[in-house]
Design brief:
CATH topology of the domain at 2-172 and 202-229: Rossmann fold
Strand order of the largest sheet: 3-2-1-4-5-7-11
CATH class of the domain at 2-172 and 202-229: Alpha Beta
Largest sheet: 7 strands, parallel
Low-confidence stretches: 37-41
Amino acid sequence: MKLFLTGGTGFVGSYFTRRFLEEGHEVTVLTRSARKGGEKGETKVSWVEGDPTKPGHWQESLSGHDAAINLAGSTIFTPWTSKARKVIEDSRILTTRHLVEALRGDSSPATLLSGSAVGYYGGRLDDTVLTEDTPPGDDFLAQLGVKWEKEALRAEDWGVRVAICRLGIVLGRDGGALSKMLPAFRKYMGSHLGSGKQWFPWIHMEDLFRIFLFLLENPHLKGPFNCTAPNPLTNRDFAGVLARALGTSVLMPGVPAVMIRMALGDFGEVILKGQRALPRRLLEEGFVFQFPHAEEALADLLK
């Protein structure tokens, strides 16, 4: 297949680009800075320069591709000033809007896999199991998810198959949440956050890639999919599993919620709450996780 990626140079996107190439696919990556194809031996990568938050000539580049994969989105791991909120929202809403507009043509991709997040369900402190049928929450990330997904689903109006991928916390090497946790846990200074009772909806990077590949290869699949491992843990339990994987222990008390709120403001609530999201639809469709448990996922990522 010939694939068009937004966000293809980020933490998840760069991994996807490499893995799609290994699977024999061709990849076009939209980037804000011009690059030449074939860098580092990536002979099947094409680079298209453009700002996805704005319409432009880059939209013409989608012609001739089999599918578009929308992974763009500015990090939410920052204090949520009014400026930061706008950047977070525009990087998702405007990018998706302009990508969908580019799918109108007769030779445009017939499939769109568009990123979203389990934050769609809102931050929660309870044990409610969240499946794809669960209504959205009402906090900032939840309402952002509603608007984000609505933009992607507009592509159905002109016959494009749309699958919405609600990502959990992606665990991978050289970046993401795991890289932020490792230094403290290696020094016996890691611990749970707040009460530690909030759910931690994680997924191994390789399983996330395999989910996207699974959705591409099964053209009957559309709508929302929770892209999380089938065995989420509470924040406290995940801290214990991570410490054991590193051969250390959790010796420190939990980080007080008040300190997290003081340091991070509104974003702190995202850390202090979670979602017990389960990949019900993927399991029903027969997808098999390579890393269904955190123990085996961390053993692979830390080896």
